[in-house]
Structures are given as C-alpha cells and as structure tokens.
Specification:
Mean pLDDT: 84
Strand order of the largest sheet: 6-5-4-1-7
Structural class: alpha+beta
Distance between the termini: 39 Å
Number of helices: 3
Largest sheet: 5 strands, antiparallel
Helix content: 25-40%
Order of helices and strands: HEEEEEEEHEEHEEE
Length: 193
Amino acid sequence: MKHFLTLTLLFLSYKTVFSEVFFSAKDLSNIYMQPSIESPIIYPIELGKKLILKKDQDEWANVLDEKTGLVGWIQKELLSKEKPENSGKSNDYKTSFIIFEERVMEMSKSIKEAISIETFLSVEHLGGAAAAITADNEWFKGRRHANQAFQVYDLWKNQNQSPSFLSFRNESGEEQFIILSGPHRPRYLKSTK
C-alpha cells in the first residue's frame, strides 16, 4: 500500500509539473529547436498562444503546441500563466490565411485543369504561422508532390513574412509530412506514424 501511494503521488506530481499551461505574453515570439536564440527557429507564435510546459532549463521552457504537435524551446520571460487580455486581436495571420487559402485552392484548380490530377482539398488555419493542408490520397503517391508542397510552403511563408509551419494530411486527416522553416532552407519532415 505504501509503494502504491508513493507511485500515485509521483505520477500526480509529474503530471502536474509537466502539464502546466502557459500563454505567449508577447505580440510575436519564436519557438526554437534548442534553448538558445542562436538555434534555428521552428516557427513564430502570436500573443496568447496556448503552450504546455514539458520541462524547463534555466531561463528556457520546453513547450508543446497541441495544435501542431511540435515541441520546442521558448524563453520563460515570454510566457504568462494568464492569457493576455488583448490576445486574439491581431488579424495579421487571419488575413494572411484567407489570402493563402484562396491561392492554394486556385493552384489546386489550375493543376486539375492542366493535368487532371486532384491535389489540395482544403486548408485549415491552426493559429499564428501554422496551417494544415488536406490533399487527395493519390497526390502523395505522385512524383511531384514534394515540389508542389514546397511551392505551397513558399506561398505561406511569403504571406506571413516570417518562419512558418505547414502540415500535409491525407483525406483521413492523418499527417503525412510537415514543412517548416529551417536555418538555411525549409525542411521536409516525414511523419513517423
């Protein structure tokens, strides 16, 4: 009984400590690959972005963005326990997304008219500089899908004028790969599922 109680307390304290919710407290913050501003930026986040604390190290917090599933590092001074009152008032990313969605759907229509291949079915804004694209299952099997994905990523990054994140999902909503900003060029990361 004593061992069970000890294990239960350890589990509860672990869960409490490593699942704290924080919010971005600055208009625009960056999530980095490592706890250093010299490290590559994964992508920027907007004011009020909800993040889950995984662990901390000195003045850095290792956080999870539940919407994208990405884990990275952010400076603790840029986090708040309380959601900022004026968060969500910035329309920069929302406006960018509307323009981006229109361009992606136009691109998809043009590809279908030119070579009779279905490509992108829908586009979803995940918040900030993160978005997800649902593509036709057959598109992932084509030789040109990676090149087209990078073209779409360039549209999104140029629209945001900042490092960005794109998830590419099949018709079942399963992530197939992501493209995100890298230190020198965008990175294509295949899903491990």
